[in-house]
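QA checklist item 7 of 12: single-chain prediction sanity check.
[x] sequence parsed
[x] length recorded as 245
[x] structure emitted
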Amino acid sequence: MALAGLAGLAMSCASPSAPADSSPSPDKSMVRPAASPGGGALASTPSPSPLMPSTTATGLAPSAQGGETADLKDAGGGGEPSDAGKGAEAKAEAHAIVADNQVKPAEGSPEELVTRAKGLFEAIVKDEAPLGDPFWFPREPFIPLKDVKGPEKYWKNLHQAYGADIHKAHRKQKSWDGATFKGFDIGSTPKWVKPGDEANKIGYYRSFHGKIRYELEGKNYSIDVHTVITWQGRWYVTHLGKFKK
């Protein structure tokens, strides 16, 4: 499976993930985590991190809907786990991911999404593309997700286009003085894109034409966000504007 070579990335998101519901398809294949130093089995649950587990991660949650998870038990007969064991448990839970990515995104605009969308707005206002990177789809899960030749190069091309689109959006106002971020709205109804539908090895939810809303000089405006897709239940931009391959 494409996820086999993905260990090594530490969590680097702006805020915790907020998947609200689970997606439909259970997956019973699961790697059980190793026992903690206190003797307890470590729980595998969907990660608050949207990226990939580090080399210290011990397992993958099979699916967000109905899949088995390892129960947290104390093999020593009910005693409290050691401090080291608690730390290992927390680390395992933080890094476990849902292997098939079928984590349904939260409805509406959760706080973590609004925060990252505001970062993109500030990138446009200040004409500083890196400020928008927290809303950009991360490289590490993109590489195994896409079924294309040279996914690393493809990601780089998309990221460069994202930066160019930020500069282009900045030029749409003569002055951004006093511009105020008002919110972000998901566009079209999220659709599950199964593996193989869009040159992808792993499925994801997709939505078109989200809107960053802002106010400037007493008038309301919006910035179109062409395409967002999910990783572990969180939305990320793959195309800010139209992308030509």
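[x] summary fact logged: The two ends are 27 Å apart (CA to CA).
[ ] second reviewer sign-off
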